[in-house]
Amino acid sequence: MSIEPAPIPSADQSPSLWRRISTFFYRRPSLALLLLLAPPLLWLGVVYLGSLFALAAQSFYHLEPFSGKVLRDFSLSNYQELLSASSRDIIGRTSLMALAVTLFSIPLAFPISYYIARFAKPRMKTVMFMAVLVPLWSSYLVRVYAWKLILAKEGILSWAVTKLGLDGVLNQVLAIPGIGGPSLSVSYLGMFIVFVYVWLPYMILPIEAALERVPRSLLEASSDLGARPLSTFRRVIMPLIIPGVVAGSIFTFSLTLGDFIIPGVIGNSSFFIGATVYSQQGTAGNMPLAAAFTVVPMAIMAIYLIIARKLGAFDAL
Amino acid sequence: MPSKTREPRSPLGIRIGAWLALVFLYFPLATIVLYAFTTDERSFTFPPPGLTFDWFGITAANQGFRDSLGLSIEVALIATAMALVLGTLLALAVARFSFFGRDAISFLVVLPIALPGIVTGIALRSTIGIMGIPFSFWTIVIGHATFCVVTVYNNVVARLRRSSPSMIEASMDLGASTLQTFRYVVLPSIATALLAGGMLAFALSFDEIIVTTFTAGQQETLPIWIFSQLNRSHQRPVTNVAAVFVILATAIPILLASRLTQDVSSEQ
After folding, report:
1. ipTM of the prediction
2. Nearest Cβ partner of B127 from A50, A143, A257?
Protein backbone atom coordinates (compact mmCIF):
# COMPACT_ATOMS: atom_id res chain seq x y z
CA MET A 1 0.00 0.00 0.00
CA SER A 2 1.69 3.07 -1.06
CA ILE A 3 0.62 6.60 -0.50
CA GLU A 4 1.17 8.97 -3.28
CA PRO A 5 3.43 11.70 -2.02
CA ALA A 6 1.65 14.97 -2.01
CA PRO A 7 2.86 17.12 -4.83
CA ILE A 8 5.39 19.60 -3.54
CA PRO A 9 4.14 23.08 -4.15
CA SER A 10 6.75 24.50 -6.35
CA ALA A 11 7.43 27.92 -7.72
CA ASP A 12 8.73 26.23 -10.82
CA GLN A 13 5.34 24.98 -11.81
CA SER A 14 4.20 28.15 -13.47
CA PRO A 15 7.13 30.48 -13.08
CA SER A 16 6.41 34.02 -14.09
CA LEU A 17 8.40 35.52 -16.86
CA TRP A 18 10.35 37.72 -14.44
CA ARG A 19 11.22 34.76 -12.29
CA ARG A 20 12.41 32.78 -15.25
CA ILE A 21 14.56 35.67 -16.38
CA SER A 22 15.87 36.11 -12.89
CA THR A 23 16.68 32.42 -12.51
CA PHE A 24 18.28 32.42 -15.92
CA PHE A 25 20.72 35.09 -14.87
CA TYR A 26 21.23 33.71 -11.40
CA ARG A 27 22.46 30.48 -12.96
CA ARG A 28 24.69 32.34 -15.35
CA PRO A 29 26.51 34.90 -13.22
CA SER A 30 28.91 35.76 -15.98
CA LEU A 31 26.03 36.79 -18.22
CA ALA A 32 24.56 38.90 -15.42
CA LEU A 33 27.96 40.48 -14.94
CA LEU A 34 28.18 41.19 -18.62
CA LEU A 35 24.83 42.95 -18.57
CA LEU A 36 25.86 45.03 -15.58
CA LEU A 37 29.18 45.95 -17.06
CA ALA A 38 28.21 46.54 -20.66
CA PRO A 39 26.61 50.01 -20.46
CA PRO A 40 29.18 51.69 -18.18
CA LEU A 41 32.08 50.03 -19.94
CA LEU A 42 30.76 51.00 -23.36
CA TRP A 43 30.56 54.55 -22.14
CA LEU A 44 33.77 54.89 -20.15
CA GLY A 45 35.88 52.18 -21.70
CA VAL A 46 34.94 52.58 -25.34
CA VAL A 47 33.65 56.12 -25.85
CA TYR A 48 35.78 57.90 -23.28
CA LEU A 49 39.01 55.91 -23.48
CA GLY A 50 38.51 55.71 -27.24
CA SER A 51 38.31 59.48 -27.39
CA LEU A 52 41.53 59.79 -25.43
CA PHE A 53 43.30 57.42 -27.80
CA ALA A 54 41.86 59.15 -30.83
CA LEU A 55 43.12 62.42 -29.43
CA ALA A 56 46.57 60.97 -28.91
CA ALA A 57 46.48 59.58 -32.46
CA GLN A 58 45.66 63.00 -33.87
CA SER A 59 48.88 64.33 -32.45
CA PHE A 60 50.64 62.41 -35.24
CA TYR A 61 48.67 64.16 -37.98
CA HIS A 62 49.76 67.51 -39.28
CA LEU A 63 48.47 70.55 -41.08
CA GLU A 64 48.78 71.03 -44.81
CA PRO A 65 50.93 74.18 -44.76
CA PHE A 66 48.99 76.10 -47.44
CA SER A 67 45.38 75.01 -47.11
CA GLY A 68 45.47 74.57 -43.34
CA LYS A 69 43.68 71.24 -43.71
CA VAL A 70 44.52 68.34 -41.44
CA LEU A 71 46.58 65.69 -43.25
CA ARG A 72 46.01 62.25 -41.85
CA ASP A 73 49.39 60.72 -42.33
CA PHE A 74 51.93 59.85 -39.74
CA SER A 75 54.35 62.60 -38.88
CA LEU A 76 56.33 63.65 -35.87
CA SER A 77 56.30 67.32 -36.79
CA ASN A 78 54.09 68.25 -33.84
CA TYR A 79 56.50 66.60 -31.47
CA GLN A 80 59.33 68.52 -33.06
CA GLU A 81 57.25 71.59 -32.39
CA LEU A 82 56.90 70.50 -28.74
CA LEU A 83 60.68 70.44 -28.46
CA SER A 84 61.05 73.97 -29.79
CA ALA A 85 62.23 76.60 -27.35
CA SER A 86 58.87 78.33 -27.01
CA SER A 87 56.98 75.09 -26.36
CA ARG A 88 59.57 73.89 -23.90
CA ASP A 89 59.07 77.20 -22.15
CA ILE A 90 55.33 76.63 -21.88
CA ILE A 91 55.70 73.05 -20.67
CA GLY A 92 58.42 73.97 -18.21
CA ARG A 93 56.49 76.93 -16.81
CA THR A 94 53.32 74.88 -16.37
CA SER A 95 55.08 71.94 -14.73
CA LEU A 96 56.99 74.26 -12.42
CA MET A 97 53.78 75.98 -11.41
CA ALA A 98 52.08 72.61 -10.80
CA LEU A 99 55.03 71.48 -8.72
CA ALA A 100 55.17 74.70 -6.69
CA VAL A 101 51.43 74.62 -6.05
CA THR A 102 51.60 70.98 -4.94
CA LEU A 103 54.59 71.47 -2.66
CA PHE A 104 53.10 74.55 -1.04
CA SER A 105 49.68 72.95 -0.51
CA ILE A 106 51.13 70.16 1.64
CA PRO A 107 52.29 72.27 4.63
CA LEU A 108 49.22 74.46 4.28
CA ALA A 109 46.91 71.44 4.41
CA PHE A 110 48.65 69.64 7.25
CA PRO A 111 47.62 71.66 10.35
CA ILE A 112 43.91 71.64 9.56
CA SER A 113 44.01 67.95 8.57
CA TYR A 114 45.82 67.11 11.77
CA TYR A 115 43.42 69.17 13.84
CA ILE A 116 40.37 67.50 12.30
CA ALA A 117 41.82 64.00 12.56
CA ARG A 118 43.26 64.22 16.04
CA PHE A 119 41.89 66.98 18.21
CA ALA A 120 38.46 68.09 17.02
CA LYS A 121 35.53 66.80 19.09
CA PRO A 122 33.01 64.78 17.04
CA ARG A 123 30.68 67.71 16.48
CA MET A 124 33.46 70.09 15.57
CA LYS A 125 34.95 67.41 13.38
CA THR A 126 31.79 67.21 11.28
CA VAL A 127 31.58 70.97 10.98
CA MET A 128 35.20 71.39 9.92
CA PHE A 129 35.03 68.46 7.56
CA MET A 130 32.06 70.04 5.81
CA ALA A 131 33.82 73.38 5.85
CA VAL A 132 36.55 71.81 3.73
CA LEU A 133 34.14 69.84 1.57
CA VAL A 134 31.91 72.72 0.51
CA PRO A 135 34.58 74.78 -1.29
CA LEU A 136 35.88 71.60 -2.91
CA TRP A 137 32.58 70.95 -4.62
CA SER A 138 31.32 74.46 -4.98
CA SER A 139 31.88 76.46 -8.07
CA TYR A 140 35.43 76.57 -9.23
CA LEU A 141 34.81 79.50 -11.53
CA VAL A 142 33.22 81.50 -8.76
CA ARG A 143 36.20 80.93 -6.50
CA VAL A 144 38.60 82.08 -9.20
CA TYR A 145 36.44 85.12 -9.78
CA ALA A 146 36.56 85.91 -6.04
CA TRP A 147 40.31 86.32 -6.29
CA LYS A 148 39.91 88.69 -9.18
CA LEU A 149 37.94 90.88 -6.79
CA ILE A 150 40.48 90.52 -4.01
CA LEU A 151 43.60 91.06 -6.11
CA ALA A 152 42.17 93.86 -8.25
CA LYS A 153 44.08 97.14 -8.16
CA GLU A 154 41.41 98.90 -6.13
CA GLY A 155 40.43 95.69 -4.30
CA ILE A 156 40.62 94.44 -0.75
CA LEU A 157 44.23 93.37 -0.75
CA SER A 158 45.66 96.70 -1.86
CA TRP A 159 43.34 98.44 0.59
CA ALA A 160 44.62 96.26 3.46
CA VAL A 161 48.24 96.67 2.38
CA THR A 162 47.89 100.45 2.31
CA LYS A 163 46.12 100.53 5.68
CA LEU A 164 48.91 98.47 7.20
CA GLY A 165 51.52 100.66 5.57
CA LEU A 166 53.06 97.71 3.77
CA ASP A 167 53.08 99.24 0.29
CA GLY A 168 56.85 99.10 0.23
CA VAL A 169 56.90 95.40 1.03
CA LEU A 170 54.34 94.56 -1.64
CA ASN A 171 56.22 96.56 -4.24
CA GLN A 172 59.43 94.81 -3.31
CA VAL A 173 57.76 91.42 -3.67
CA LEU A 174 56.29 92.43 -7.02
CA ALA A 175 59.71 93.61 -8.15
CA ILE A 176 61.22 90.13 -7.71
CA PRO A 177 61.97 89.02 -11.23
CA GLY A 178 60.29 85.77 -12.27
CA ILE A 179 57.34 85.85 -9.88
CA GLY A 180 56.42 89.54 -9.75
CA GLY A 181 54.66 91.85 -12.17
CA PRO A 182 52.94 95.21 -12.32
CA SER A 183 50.30 94.11 -9.79
CA LEU A 184 49.31 90.94 -7.99
CA SER A 185 46.38 90.28 -10.30
CA VAL A 186 48.69 89.99 -13.30
CA SER A 187 51.67 88.21 -11.75
CA TYR A 188 52.83 84.62 -11.37
CA LEU A 189 52.55 85.15 -7.65
CA GLY A 190 48.85 85.99 -7.97
CA MET A 191 48.24 82.93 -10.14
CA PHE A 192 50.12 80.78 -7.68
CA ILE A 193 47.95 82.00 -4.79
CA VAL A 194 44.77 81.28 -6.74
CA PHE A 195 45.93 77.82 -7.82
CA VAL A 196 46.80 76.93 -4.23
CA TYR A 197 43.44 78.27 -3.13
CA VAL A 198 41.28 76.35 -5.55
CA TRP A 199 43.02 73.00 -5.14
CA LEU A 200 43.76 73.13 -1.39
CA PRO A 201 40.73 71.03 -0.31
CA TYR A 202 41.93 68.24 -2.63
CA MET A 203 45.07 68.09 -0.50
CA ILE A 204 43.38 68.42 2.90
CA LEU A 205 40.91 65.54 2.53
CA PRO A 206 43.29 62.67 1.68
CA ILE A 207 45.84 63.84 4.27
CA GLU A 208 43.07 63.96 6.85
CA ALA A 209 41.95 60.46 5.87
CA ALA A 210 45.52 59.18 6.15
CA LEU A 211 46.00 60.80 9.56
CA GLU A 212 42.75 59.24 10.70
CA ARG A 213 44.28 55.83 10.03
CA VAL A 214 47.44 56.44 12.04
CA PRO A 215 46.91 54.35 15.19
CA ARG A 216 47.00 56.51 18.30
CA SER A 217 48.95 53.80 20.07
CA LEU A 218 51.88 54.37 17.73
CA LEU A 219 52.03 58.03 18.70
CA GLU A 220 51.82 57.13 22.38
CA ALA A 221 54.51 54.50 21.96
CA SER A 222 56.72 57.00 20.22
CA SER A 223 56.43 59.53 23.01
CA ASP A 224 56.78 56.81 25.67
CA LEU A 225 60.05 55.89 24.04
CA GLY A 226 61.16 59.46 24.54
CA ALA A 227 60.60 61.02 21.13
CA ARG A 228 59.83 64.71 21.10
CA PRO A 229 56.72 65.77 19.14
CA LEU A 230 58.82 66.88 16.21
CA SER A 231 60.64 63.61 15.84
CA THR A 232 57.38 61.69 16.29
CA PHE A 233 56.06 63.77 13.43
CA ARG A 234 59.08 63.17 11.26
CA ARG A 235 59.63 59.49 11.96
CA VAL A 236 56.15 58.13 12.69
CA ILE A 237 53.47 60.38 11.21
CA MET A 238 55.22 61.46 8.03
CA PRO A 239 55.96 57.98 6.64
CA LEU A 240 52.42 56.85 7.41
CA ILE A 241 50.66 59.70 5.64
CA ILE A 242 52.74 59.58 2.46
CA PRO A 243 49.97 57.76 0.53
CA GLY A 244 47.53 60.51 1.48
CA VAL A 245 49.91 63.23 0.43
CA VAL A 246 50.51 61.51 -2.90
CA ALA A 247 46.77 61.06 -3.43
CA GLY A 248 46.22 64.77 -2.82
CA SER A 249 49.08 65.71 -5.09
CA ILE A 250 47.50 63.78 -7.98
CA PHE A 251 44.75 66.36 -7.99
CA THR A 252 46.75 69.52 -7.24
CA PHE A 253 49.32 68.60 -9.85
CA SER A 254 47.03 67.35 -12.58
CA LEU A 255 44.49 70.12 -12.24
CA THR A 256 47.15 72.82 -12.37
CA LEU A 257 48.70 71.20 -15.44
CA GLY A 258 45.57 71.47 -17.53
CA ASP A 259 43.91 74.60 -16.24
CA PHE A 260 43.28 77.42 -18.67
CA ILE A 261 40.77 79.51 -16.72
CA ILE A 262 43.09 80.79 -14.01
CA PRO A 263 45.86 81.91 -16.39
CA GLY A 264 43.11 83.59 -18.40
CA VAL A 265 41.43 85.41 -15.52
CA ILE A 266 44.37 86.20 -13.25
CA GLY A 267 47.60 85.65 -15.15
CA ASN A 268 49.91 87.88 -17.12
CA SER A 269 48.90 86.32 -20.45
CA SER A 270 52.01 84.18 -20.60
CA PHE A 271 51.09 80.82 -22.04
CA PHE A 272 50.40 77.68 -20.04
CA ILE A 273 49.68 74.22 -21.47
CA GLY A 274 45.93 74.56 -21.03
CA ALA A 275 45.73 77.97 -22.65
CA THR A 276 47.95 76.80 -25.52
CA VAL A 277 45.75 73.79 -26.21
CA TYR A 278 42.70 75.99 -26.07
CA SER A 279 43.97 78.54 -28.54
CA GLN A 280 45.54 75.95 -30.87
CA GLN A 281 42.34 73.98 -31.24
CA GLY A 282 40.14 77.06 -31.33
CA THR A 283 41.41 80.22 -32.96
CA ALA A 284 44.51 78.71 -34.56
CA GLY A 285 42.59 75.65 -35.79
CA ASN A 286 45.63 73.45 -35.41
CA MET A 287 44.03 70.43 -33.82
CA PRO A 288 47.03 68.11 -34.29
CA LEU A 289 49.32 70.48 -32.40
CA ALA A 290 46.70 70.95 -29.70
CA ALA A 291 46.47 67.16 -29.43
CA ALA A 292 50.23 66.88 -29.12
CA PHE A 293 50.14 69.40 -26.29
CA THR A 294 47.50 67.40 -24.42
CA VAL A 295 49.73 64.34 -24.70
CA VAL A 296 52.15 66.11 -22.34
CA PRO A 297 49.84 66.24 -19.29
CA MET A 298 48.47 62.80 -20.21
CA ALA A 299 51.97 61.32 -20.21
CA ILE A 300 53.00 63.15 -17.03
CA MET A 301 49.83 62.03 -15.28
CA ALA A 302 50.13 58.44 -16.47
CA ILE A 303 53.61 58.18 -14.98
CA TYR A 304 52.42 59.99 -11.89
CA LEU A 305 49.44 57.67 -11.40
CA ILE A 306 51.59 54.57 -11.80
CA ILE A 307 53.99 55.80 -9.13
CA ALA A 308 51.07 56.87 -6.94
CA ARG A 309 49.59 53.42 -7.21
CA LYS A 310 52.86 51.85 -6.14
CA LEU A 311 52.90 54.14 -3.11
CA GLY A 312 49.39 53.06 -2.14
CA ALA A 313 47.75 56.37 -2.91
CA PHE A 314 44.69 54.75 -4.50
CA ASP A 315 43.54 53.35 -1.20
CA ALA A 316 43.83 56.84 0.24
CA LEU A 317 41.58 58.48 -2.34
CA MET B 1 39.59 50.51 22.84
CA PRO B 2 42.68 52.16 24.24
CA SER B 3 42.52 53.22 27.87
CA LYS B 4 40.74 56.50 28.47
CA THR B 5 43.82 58.61 28.77
CA ARG B 6 43.58 62.36 28.87
CA GLU B 7 43.06 63.72 25.35
CA PRO B 8 46.14 65.68 24.40
CA ARG B 9 45.48 69.35 23.94
CA SER B 10 46.09 70.59 20.45
CA PRO B 11 49.38 72.43 20.07
CA LEU B 12 48.92 76.15 19.49
CA GLY B 13 50.67 76.02 16.12
CA ILE B 14 48.27 73.37 14.81
CA ARG B 15 45.25 75.34 15.97
CA ILE B 16 46.45 78.56 14.38
CA GLY B 17 47.31 76.74 11.16
CA ALA B 18 43.89 75.10 11.07
CA TRP B 19 42.03 78.35 11.52
CA LEU B 20 44.20 80.17 9.02
CA ALA B 21 43.37 77.50 6.44
CA LEU B 22 39.67 77.92 7.13
CA VAL B 23 39.89 81.70 6.82
CA PHE B 24 41.83 81.27 3.59
CA LEU B 25 39.10 78.96 2.25
CA TYR B 26 36.17 81.19 3.12
CA PHE B 27 37.43 84.74 2.83
CA PRO B 28 37.07 84.79 -1.00
CA LEU B 29 33.53 83.44 -0.83
CA ALA B 30 32.63 86.18 1.64
CA THR B 31 34.08 88.71 -0.78
CA ILE B 32 31.77 87.48 -3.53
CA VAL B 33 28.75 87.88 -1.29
CA LEU B 34 29.82 91.34 -0.15
CA TYR B 35 30.24 92.64 -3.68
CA ALA B 36 26.81 91.39 -4.66
CA PHE B 37 25.52 94.33 -2.59
CA THR B 38 27.91 97.08 -3.63
CA THR B 39 26.62 100.24 -5.30
CA ASP B 40 29.82 100.56 -7.31
CA GLU B 41 29.07 98.94 -10.68
CA ARG B 42 32.30 99.61 -12.57
CA SER B 43 35.06 98.45 -10.29
CA PHE B 44 35.61 96.51 -7.09
CA THR B 45 36.50 99.35 -4.77
CA PHE B 46 37.03 98.35 -1.19
CA PRO B 47 35.36 99.31 1.05
CA PRO B 48 32.22 99.46 -1.12
CA PRO B 49 30.88 103.01 -1.36
CA GLY B 50 27.38 101.83 -0.47
CA LEU B 51 25.18 98.77 -0.21
CA THR B 52 22.03 97.92 -2.16
CA PHE B 53 19.70 95.03 -2.91
CA ASP B 54 19.01 96.27 -6.45
CA TRP B 55 21.32 93.81 -8.19
CA PHE B 56 19.17 90.86 -7.23
CA GLY B 57 16.21 92.26 -9.14
CA ILE B 58 18.35 93.28 -12.10
CA THR B 59 19.92 89.81 -12.27
CA ALA B 60 16.56 88.04 -11.99
CA ALA B 61 15.33 90.09 -14.96
CA ASN B 62 18.43 89.35 -17.03
CA GLN B 63 17.49 87.06 -19.92
CA GLY B 64 20.98 85.63 -20.32
CA PHE B 65 21.06 84.68 -16.68
CA ARG B 66 17.63 83.05 -16.78
CA ASP B 67 18.31 81.06 -19.94
CA SER B 68 21.67 79.81 -18.77
CA LEU B 69 20.32 78.92 -15.33
CA GLY B 70 17.53 76.87 -16.88
CA LEU B 71 19.97 75.10 -19.19
CA SER B 72 22.35 74.31 -16.34
CA ILE B 73 19.58 72.78 -14.25
CA GLU B 74 18.34 70.63 -17.14
CA VAL B 75 21.82 69.44 -18.03
CA ALA B 76 22.65 68.66 -14.40
CA LEU B 77 19.43 66.69 -13.90
CA ILE B 78 19.86 64.52 -16.98
CA ALA B 79 23.59 64.02 -16.48
CA THR B 80 22.90 63.01 -12.87
CA ALA B 81 20.25 60.51 -13.97
CA MET B 82 22.68 58.93 -16.43
CA ALA B 83 25.45 58.87 -13.86
CA LEU B 84 23.11 57.18 -11.37
CA VAL B 85 22.36 54.35 -13.79
CA LEU B 86 25.91 53.85 -15.02
CA GLY B 87 27.50 54.26 -11.60
CA THR B 88 25.12 51.82 -9.91
CA LEU B 89 25.58 49.16 -12.58
CA LEU B 90 29.32 49.45 -12.28
CA ALA B 91 29.25 49.42 -8.48
CA LEU B 92 27.06 46.29 -8.43
CA ALA B 93 29.42 44.54 -10.81
CA VAL B 94 32.52 45.48 -8.86
CA ALA B 95 31.12 44.76 -5.40
CA ARG B 96 29.39 41.47 -6.21
CA PHE B 97 31.57 39.78 -8.77
CA SER B 98 35.23 39.19 -9.23
CA PHE B 99 36.46 39.33 -12.77
CA PHE B 100 39.50 40.06 -14.83
CA GLY B 101 40.34 43.74 -14.77
CA ARG B 102 38.19 44.60 -11.77
CA ASP B 103 40.96 46.62 -10.19
CA ALA B 104 41.21 48.71 -13.32
CA ILE B 105 37.59 49.87 -12.97
CA SER B 106 38.21 52.27 -10.09
CA PHE B 107 41.06 53.66 -12.15
CA LEU B 108 38.88 54.07 -15.23
CA VAL B 109 36.09 55.77 -13.30
CA VAL B 110 38.35 58.28 -11.60
CA LEU B 111 40.17 59.11 -14.85
CA PRO B 112 37.71 61.76 -16.11
CA ILE B 113 38.23 63.83 -12.98
CA ALA B 114 41.89 62.97 -12.41
CA LEU B 115 42.91 64.01 -15.91
CA PRO B 116 42.91 67.75 -16.51
CA GLY B 117 39.46 68.83 -17.67
CA ILE B 118 40.90 70.19 -20.87
CA VAL B 119 42.08 66.72 -21.92
CA THR B 120 38.65 65.20 -21.35
CA GLY B 121 37.00 68.15 -23.03
CA ILE B 122 39.10 68.23 -26.15
CA ALA B 123 39.07 64.43 -26.51
CA LEU B 124 35.28 64.34 -26.39
CA ARG B 125 35.06 67.34 -28.69
CA SER B 126 37.15 65.75 -31.38
CA THR B 127 35.27 62.45 -31.13
CA ILE B 128 31.93 64.22 -31.33
CA GLY B 129 33.23 66.16 -34.31
CA ILE B 130 34.56 63.06 -36.08
CA MET B 131 31.28 61.23 -35.55
CA GLY B 132 29.45 64.16 -37.09
CA ILE B 133 27.16 64.75 -34.11
CA PRO B 134 26.12 68.41 -33.95
CA PHE B 135 27.13 70.20 -30.76
CA SER B 136 23.99 70.58 -28.73
CA PHE B 137 22.35 70.14 -25.38
CA TRP B 138 23.05 66.41 -25.59
CA THR B 139 26.74 66.76 -26.19
CA ILE B 140 26.98 68.82 -22.99
CA VAL B 141 25.10 66.08 -21.15
CA ILE B 142 27.43 63.39 -22.50
CA GLY B 143 30.46 65.30 -21.27
CA HIS B 144 28.97 65.87 -17.84
CA ALA B 145 27.74 62.30 -17.35
CA THR B 146 31.26 61.06 -18.09
CA PHE B 147 32.79 62.75 -15.07
CA CYS B 148 29.71 62.42 -12.83
CA VAL B 149 29.79 58.60 -12.82
CA VAL B 150 32.61 58.61 -10.28
CA THR B 151 30.63 60.24 -7.46
CA VAL B 152 27.78 57.76 -7.74
CA TYR B 153 30.11 54.81 -8.18
CA ASN B 154 32.24 55.73 -5.16
CA ASN B 155 29.27 56.20 -2.87
CA VAL B 156 27.45 53.05 -3.94
CA VAL B 157 30.47 50.79 -4.01
CA ALA B 158 31.44 51.92 -0.50
CA ARG B 159 27.94 51.17 0.74
CA LEU B 160 27.79 47.75 -0.94
CA ARG B 161 31.12 46.79 0.57
CA ARG B 162 29.78 47.54 4.04
CA SER B 163 26.50 45.70 3.58
CA SER B 164 26.76 41.96 3.94
CA PRO B 165 26.09 39.71 0.95
CA SER B 166 24.31 37.27 3.28
CA MET B 167 21.26 39.55 3.17
CA ILE B 168 21.00 38.93 -0.55
CA GLU B 169 21.49 35.20 -0.12
CA ALA B 170 18.82 35.14 2.57
CA SER B 171 16.42 36.95 0.29
CA MET B 172 17.07 34.50 -2.51
CA ASP B 173 16.74 31.52 -0.16
CA LEU B 174 13.37 32.84 0.92
CA GLY B 175 12.27 32.70 -2.67
CA ALA B 176 12.68 36.22 -3.92
CA SER B 177 13.72 36.64 -7.51
CA THR B 178 16.78 38.66 -8.47
CA LEU B 179 14.61 41.61 -9.31
CA GLN B 180 12.64 41.39 -6.08
CA THR B 181 15.89 41.11 -4.18
CA PHE B 182 17.17 44.19 -5.92
CA ARG B 183 13.95 46.08 -5.31
CA TYR B 184 13.40 45.14 -1.66
CA VAL B 185 16.87 44.38 -0.31
CA VAL B 186 19.62 46.00 -2.35
CA LEU B 187 17.88 49.23 -3.32
CA PRO B 188 16.82 50.26 0.20
CA SER B 189 20.32 49.60 1.47
CA ILE B 190 21.94 51.79 -1.17
CA ALA B 191 19.19 54.43 -1.35
CA THR B 192 20.95 57.10 0.67
CA ALA B 193 24.23 56.38 -1.09
CA LEU B 194 22.44 56.93 -4.40
CA LEU B 195 20.94 60.16 -3.14
CA ALA B 196 24.29 61.38 -1.86
CA GLY B 197 26.13 60.39 -5.03
CA GLY B 198 23.40 61.93 -7.14
CA MET B 199 23.54 65.23 -5.32
CA LEU B 200 27.30 65.40 -5.63
CA ALA B 201 26.96 64.62 -9.32
CA PHE B 202 24.42 67.43 -9.63
CA ALA B 203 26.75 69.89 -7.92
CA LEU B 204 29.67 68.74 -10.06
CA SER B 205 27.71 69.18 -13.26
CA PHE B 206 26.07 72.44 -12.26
CA ASP B 207 29.28 74.39 -11.98
CA GLU B 208 31.49 72.64 -14.53
CA ILE B 209 33.04 74.95 -17.09
CA ILE B 210 36.13 73.43 -18.72
CA VAL B 211 34.65 70.32 -20.33
CA THR B 212 31.51 72.30 -21.14
CA THR B 213 33.52 74.88 -23.07
CA PHE B 214 34.48 72.11 -25.48
CA THR B 215 31.29 70.10 -25.70
CA ALA B 216 28.78 72.96 -25.95
CA GLY B 217 27.68 74.49 -29.21
CA GLN B 218 25.99 77.86 -28.98
CA GLN B 219 24.37 77.04 -25.64
CA GLU B 220 25.53 78.83 -22.54
CA THR B 221 25.41 77.06 -19.20
CA LEU B 222 25.46 79.26 -16.12
CA PRO B 223 29.24 79.00 -15.56
CA ILE B 224 29.89 79.84 -19.21
CA TRP B 225 27.55 82.81 -18.95
CA ILE B 226 29.35 84.00 -15.80
CA PHE B 227 32.68 83.56 -17.54
CA SER B 228 31.50 85.68 -20.45
CA GLN B 229 30.42 88.35 -17.96
CA LEU B 230 33.82 88.57 -16.28
CA ASN B 231 35.21 91.05 -18.74
CA ARG B 232 32.21 93.36 -18.79
CA SER B 233 32.96 96.74 -17.36
CA HIS B 234 29.55 97.79 -16.08
CA GLN B 235 26.85 96.16 -13.98
CA ARG B 236 29.58 94.01 -12.50
CA PRO B 237 27.61 93.07 -9.36
CA VAL B 238 25.22 91.09 -11.61
CA THR B 239 28.03 88.54 -11.96
CA ASN B 240 28.29 88.42 -8.18
CA VAL B 241 24.61 87.78 -7.70
CA ALA B 242 24.83 84.93 -10.21
CA ALA B 243 27.89 83.65 -8.37
CA VAL B 244 26.09 83.73 -5.01
CA PHE B 245 23.37 81.72 -6.67
CA VAL B 246 25.86 79.13 -7.89
CA ILE B 247 27.44 78.90 -4.44
CA LEU B 248 24.04 78.17 -2.88
CA ALA B 249 22.96 75.77 -5.63
CA THR B 250 26.07 73.67 -5.15
CA ALA B 251 26.63 74.05 -1.39
CA ILE B 252 23.14 72.93 -0.38
CA PRO B 253 23.18 69.56 -2.20
CA ILE B 254 26.70 68.95 -0.88
CA LEU B 255 25.69 69.60 2.71
CA LEU B 256 22.67 67.33 2.31
CA ALA B 257 24.77 64.64 0.65
CA SER B 258 27.37 64.50 3.39
CA ARG B 259 24.60 64.52 5.97
CA LEU B 260 23.13 61.44 4.32
CA THR B 261 26.38 59.54 4.21
CA GLN B 262 27.31 60.59 7.75
CA ASP B 263 24.06 59.37 9.30
CA VAL B 264 24.72 55.93 7.93
CA SER B 265 28.30 55.72 9.08
CA SER B 266 27.40 56.87 12.58
CA GLU B 267 24.73 54.20 12.82
CA GLN B 268 27.35 51.52 12.34
Report:
1. 0.79
2. A50
